[in-house]
Automatic annotation (TrEMBL):
Mode of membrane association: Multi-pass membrane protein
UniProt-listed PANTHER family: MITOFERRIN-1, MITOFERRIN-1-RELATED
Name of protein: Mitoferrin-1
Species of the source: Mesocestoides corti
Upper taxonomic lineage: Eukaryota, Metazoa, Spiralia, Lophotrochozoa, Platyhelminthes
Record-linked InterPro entries: MCP_dom_sf (IPR023395), MCP_transmembrane (IPR018108)
């Protein structure tokens, strides 16, 4: 059985949740401007102020015309959502892994099944928290967004569209994130087994493994991410869609231009922009996810390491050196960080 690396036996899920919270907030905050450009690249019929040719072009236009601070609009919603979402995500992932590993051990290929299933379970709960936060975030990221801040956006959306509109993209987000996390977790664990077989705390291995695993998963799942963006930003672009006849192009009347589910979003993107439209923003998505995933995993593993040392120290008496306490637990967790 693959013991949980880094935390001593008996550690509560709170330790995983604290590490996950710190990882999630840092991941989203550091890469937020790139995510803003990705949102604008993926929306249907963007206004002239956000018609970018590429990620670099988008970043230059955004900073030059709107200022760097503008690229952080909506980050409040992300921080409020990412904290609890990532706490539940990592905590549930580790809990499910501990439950599933004894039943999915197949010799040398022991844990790929448990990693994938644990990732799916964690993602379902994570997305239930993050979907409303993403809906608010992406509305605020749009060019000339009518909302003043995250709270104003939430209040006005609830008043005019109801709470269901915040979860309109939930299925699209699950369709993006479930395969993403399966690919992501399995790739990360595979890379770790090659780069860090001793399961020690080696920062560079977590950075490389996390970055490569995340960017690969991001590229593969871009089409459903485009659908999610279309669902979340459509109210901001509906006026433009009607003015250029997009409603006739996709078979809708002007009064019924709301795209209500992921399947309709997929059809609209294919009809209006073809296969190429499904991969809009792929470079921005990969560039966002690569450092974001590397940061998330490295910060998460770091806090696991810190918490494991703190937990190990409390197991010894006040007169017992930390080294002795650590050695005394080596028979409990053969993969403890050193």
């Amino acid at each position: 059985m693959d013991d949980y690396e880094g935390l001593p036996e008996g550690s509560s899920a709170l330790s995983h949740m604290v590490a996950g919270t710190c990882a999630g907030i840092m991941e989203h905050s550091i890469t937020y401007p790139i995510d803003c450009v990705k949102t604008r690249l993926q929306c249907l019929r963007p206004p002239s102020g956000q018609r970018y040719v590429s990620l670099t072009d988008g970043l230059c236009h955004l900073v030059r015309n709107e200022g760097l601070l503008r690229s952080f609009r909506g980050i409040g919603a992300v921080v409020c959502g990412a904290g609890p979402a990532h706490a539940l995500y990592f905590g549930l992932y580790e809990h499910m892994k501990s439950l599933l590993i004894p039943h999915t051990y197949f010799g040398s290929k022991s844990n790929h099944v448990s990693h994938a299933l644990s990732g799916v379970c964690a993602t379902v709960v994570h997305d239930a928290v993050m979907t409303p936060a993403d809906a608010i975030k992406q509305r605020l990221q749009m060019f000339n967004s009518p909302y003043h801040n995250s709270w104003d956006c939430l209040r006005r959306v609830l008043e005019t569209e109801g709470p269901g509109s915040l979860y309109r993209a939930y299925f699209a987000q699950l369709s993006t994130n479930v395969p993403f996390q399966c690919i992501h977790f399995v790739s990360y664990e595979c890379l770790q087994s090659k780069l860090n077989p001793s399961k020690e705390y080696l920062p560079w291995t977590h950075i490389v493994s996390g970055g490569l695993a995340g960017s690969t998963a991001a590229a593969i799942t871009t089409p459903m991410d485009v659908c999610k963006t279309v669902l979340n930003t459509q109210t901001h672009t509906n006026r433009g869609c009607c003015s250029v006849g997009l409603h006739r192009e996709v078979g809708y009347k002007p009064s019924k231009t709301v795209i209500r589910n992921a399947f309709t979003a997929l059809r609209v993107v294919l009809q209006t922009q073809g296969i190429r439209g499904l991969f809009l923003g792929i470079n921005a998505r990969v560039v966002t996810t690569l450092p974001g995933s590397a940061i998330s995993w490295s910060v998460y593993e770091y806090f696991k390491w810190v918490l494991s040392h703190r937990g190990v120290e409390t197991q010894g008496t006040s007169s017992t050196p930390t080294v002795v306490a650590m050695e005394s637990t080596s028979n409990v967790d053969s993969h403890s960080y050193r």
